[in-house]
Every structure is written in structure tokens, then in C-alpha cells.
Specification:
The chain is of the alpha+beta class. Helices cover about 25% and strands about 35% of the residues. The longest helix is centred in the middle third of the chain and has 18 residues. The chain starts with a strand and ends in an 11-residue tail after the last strand. Bound molecules: adenosine-5'-triphosphate (ATP). The site of adenosine-5'-triphosphate has 12 residues, from strand 2 and helix 1.
Length: about 350
């Protein structure tokens, strides 16, 4: 099922929780709503579920206007951070509960519950109560309960936040696999960029109730449309360096005291003559090489597979991922090679990427 939000706005008094959002989630697509706490992700999800009513704007399911349709008639499955299972019911009773409300026959309920329980690996737990399950098992039951009613749309609100890191990883993969297998349209709210990047077909980035971008994880990573997204997506985060772009002997250079970097023509041309611009580069796109920009090792942070090296260049610092076998020490002189294809340039006033113009 396709979900369309048109000029969707939700206001509480003078506070805009969601402001003029326009986007379409395609049939069978997995879309993540990503953004920091308070940016309006949950409010948008609850508007789609029908739990909140929009202040203005429209919500359409397959071109059907849904604004006035009560939540129980939207055929939406929801999975929350708190598992919200019924504590006095067994796993089986929890799984079939939504179907009872829809008057599904007992035989059909049994069959669907068994199928979902098999899929989620919880078939051996059907007689237990939620209190006798681990957090991960409870979250599987919550997911199962959302699936047994065969929803047209799955809505997730930070469903993995209460799980430990290893379990989060396996549940992430499982939710993604199930969603593809069942072909159900899914919207997944998270503030965790890794979750959004790994699970979603497209990511809607929100900030202050507004949509900042709606694009694929690749695009978001490779060509972030705003400075906020560039800093928010990716770990360790992108380096930002204030530069001026000038043309010398037919080549564009990004420069500041002690720093001079030739740019690819199409990138340089966007930024030349604008005065101050912000150059962005990810730590993995800067290499310690035989020649390049000279600096000095300021801090070494071992991350396991790589070392994160803070290199001081004049009055600025650049983080670089380096091979631990280089054994870099504080004060070592190094030269840095910036991958020219990975350089981002932003307007410091509008905070928009200059590569999208
Ligand atoms: P989090 O990740 O912390 O849950 P979020 O991005 O989901 O954050 P929302 O819960 O959608 O954010 O809240 C968006 C804004 O709307 C916040 O500023 C919040 O304080 C405000 N807000 C949410 N619900 C209400 C409400 N019932 N009454 C007044 N303000 C609200």
C-alpha cells in the first residue's frame, strides 16, 4: 500500500511538532524517519496511525483520504519501544488478540499465529507469559502480534532501543528480511542513523518538525544535502573545514592558512567566488600518504580495526582513519591525501550543499 503525506502539519498550541511535510512512501517500501529527539518523528507516525489528528494537511493510503478514518479501520500494525504486551495473556493469546477484534475464525487465528511464531522463532514460547520472556523474545512477540493481523502498513517506533547491541543487530536483520518477504510497506522511526542506513530503502530526515531530505541511504551518505545531515549521518562524523575557494592557473583550490587543496573542476566551480564556504570530508576519505597537506599527529584514538587520528593542520584539525600498524605517535609529522571525489561543499548561511545546485 502507498502512503502519501500532503502538507501534513501538527501543532500543539504555538509548538509545531510537524510542519508541512510532503512525501510518498511507495508500495512495499521500507522508509525510516530519522532525526534527533523532539524533531517530530513519533508525532508523524501517530498521525499516520490515526492516533493524532492533523492540524492541517492530508494523509492518503493508496489515494484514499484517511484523515477521518479511526485507527482501528486503518489496518496498520504497530511495534513500539515498550513492547506493550498484555502481561496476563500467554504469547499465543497476545498473538491472536488483534485477530479476535477482527472476528477471524479460530482455525484461521491458530494457523496465522503458528506461521508467524515459526517465522520469528518463538513457536516454543506460545504458552509462556510475557514476564517469563527475555526482552528480545518479548520484542519478537510484539512484532508477531503486529504481523498476525496481516496489516497493509507496519509502523515501528524505536522498536529495538531496549535491546542489547548484539540482539539489536540480529533483530534489525530479521525485521528487514520479514518486511521484504511479506512485501508490507513499512515506516520505521529511529534516532539511530545506523539503523536507518542499514534497514531503509529511503530515509526521511527530520529536524524541528520539518523534512530536511528524503532520499536513499547512499545518497544521504555520499552527497548529504545539508550540513546538518552531513554531521548527523556517518560515524566517525564528517570533518568540516572553513575554506575559501579560489581559481589559480585554471585550477580551483580550497584554501585557508596552512591548507591548500586542489578541487575537481565541477566541485570547485560551484563554490568559487562565494567567499567563506564549508568543506566536508569523511575520516575514511582522507589517507596518510607520501605527499599532500602537511600536518602533525595531535591525538590517536584506537578503534580496533582502525585508529582515528586527529591531525593538526595549522589552526584546524582533521580526523583521519589510519591503519594501526602505522604506529603513529603524538607529534609525528604526516601528510594527508584528500579523496577529491568525496569532498562536500556547503554554504555556511543556508547550510545547503553546493553540490546539489
Ligand atoms: P523522540 O525521539 O524523543 O521521541 P520525536 O522526534 O519522536 O522525539 P515527537 O515526540 O514527535 O518527537 O515531538 C515533537 C515535538 O512536539 C516536541 O517538541 C514535543 O515536545 C512536542 N509534542 C509532542 N507531543 C506533544 C503533546 N501531546 N503536547 C505538546 N507538545 C507535544
Amino acid at each position: 500500500m502507498k502512503v502519501r503525506l500532503e502538507n501534513l502539519t501538527k501543532r500543539w498550541g504555538s509548538i509545531y511538532a510537524v510542519r508541512d511535510i510532503n512525501l510518498t512512501v511507495d508500495d512495499g517500501e521500507f522508509v525510516a524517519f530519522l532525526g534527533p529527539s523532539g524533531c517530530g518523528k513519533t508525532t508523524t507516525l501517530l498521525l499516520i496511525a490515526g492516533i493524532y489528528k492533523p492540524t492541517t494537511g492530508r494523509i492518503l493510503f493508496d489515494e484514499r483520504m484517511m484523515n477521518q478514518v479511526p485507527p482501528k479501520n486503518r489496518n496498520v500494525g504497530m511495534v513500539f519501544q515498550s513492547y506493550a504486551l498484555y502481561p496476563h495473556m500467554t504469547v499465543y493469546e497476545n498473538l491472536v488478540f488483534p485477530m479476535k477484534l477482527k472476528r477471524v475464525s479460530t482455525a484461521e487465528m491458530k494457523e496465522r499465529a503458528q506461521r508467524v511464531a515459526d517465522m520469528l522463532g518463538i513457536a516454543h514460547l506460545l504458552d509462556r507469559r510475557p514476564g517469563q520472556l527475555s526482552g528480545g523474545q518479548q520484542q519478537r512477540v510484539a512484532l508477531g502480534r503486529a504481523l498476525t493481523k496481516q496489516p497493509d502498513l507496519l509502523l515501528f517506533d524505536e522498536p529495538l532501543s531496549n535491546l542489547d547491541a548484539r540482539l539489536r543487530l540480529s533483530m534489525r536483520a530479521e525485521i528487514k528480511r520479514l518486511q521484504i518477504e511479506m512485501g508490507i510497506t513499512a515506516i520505521y522511526v529511529t534516532h539511530d542513523q545506523v539503523e536507518a542506513m542499514t534497514m531503509a530503502d529511503r530515509i526521511a530526515v527530520m529536524k524541528d518538525g520539518m523534512l530536511q531530505a528524503f532520499c536513499s541511504p547512499d545518497e544521504l551518505y555520499e552527497r548529504p544535502p545539508t550540513l546538518f545531515i552531513a554531521g548527523f549521518v556517518g560515524n566517525p562524523p564528517m570533518n568540516f573545514i572553513e575554506v575559501e575557494v579560489v581559481q589559480r592557473d585554471g585550477v580551483y583550490h580550497a584554501q585557508r592558512p596552512g591548507f591548500d587543496l586542489p578541487l575537481l573542476p565541477e566541485r570547485g566551480a560551484q563554490a568559487a567566488g562565494r567567499g567563506r564556504v564549508i568543506l566536508g570530508i569523511r575520516p575514511e576519505d582522507v589517507a596518510i600518504a607520501d605527499e599532500g597537506i602537511a600536518g602533525e599527529v595531535y591525538v590517536v584514538e584506537p578503534l580496533g580495526r582502525d585508529d582515528l587520528i586527529d591531525v593538526r593542520i595549522g589552526d584546524t584539525h582533521v580526523h583521519v582513519l589510519a591503519d594501526p600498524t602505522l604506529n603513529l605517535r603524538l607529534g609525528d609529522p604526516v601528510t594527508l591525501r584528500f579523496n577529491p571525489k568525496k569532498i562536500q561543499l556547503f554554504d555556511p548561511e543556508t547550510e545547503r550543499s553546493l553540490l546539489w545546485t
